[in-house]
Amino acid sequence: MSTPAHDPRRRLLLGAGGGLLLAAVLPRPAVAGEILEIGMSGTPTGSEVWFRPRGLLLRPGQSVRWVNRDTGNVHTSTAYHPANGKPLRMPAGAKPWNSDYLLPGQSFTVVFDTPGVYDYFCLPHEHAGMVGRIVVGDADAARPYAGTNAQLPSAAVAGFPDVATILKRGRVD
To answer: Which residues of the chain form beta strands (DSSP E)?
Structure first.
């Protein structure tokens, strides 16, 4: 007969509980069909603006919903693409997007089917560095689109999170 401290069932139960706890705190890959949210916001004075998270890892077929949580500013989610008057900073053949101006509380959703790295910006706040990066599926961790950096405001270039960090963490705030 085993004592309570040495009961194999107890050890199994404790091990399972620890695994559940570990699963709850580790970043998990996004599930296709699940909609992830990116907040658009800024300081009350408008002196700083941002997307949160700035970097996000998705699986193909997953959606992102941008929500304007800023009570005093309009924002956009706009792909870096020639159709939007910008250099191509997304996979060739992927459909570009532009949310148009979103008032406080409004949202906009895009489905990402094509693997690769997608850079985007807020039209009125690009010069303030309000940019983001989405990685869909596996991507090369090298510096994508470095050849177009000179065509962007320096604050925008500085605002993109590193692809390798997004791949490792799943999100970068």
So the answer is: 35-42, 49-52, 55-58, 62-68, 78-79, 107-112, 116-121, 131-136, 171-172
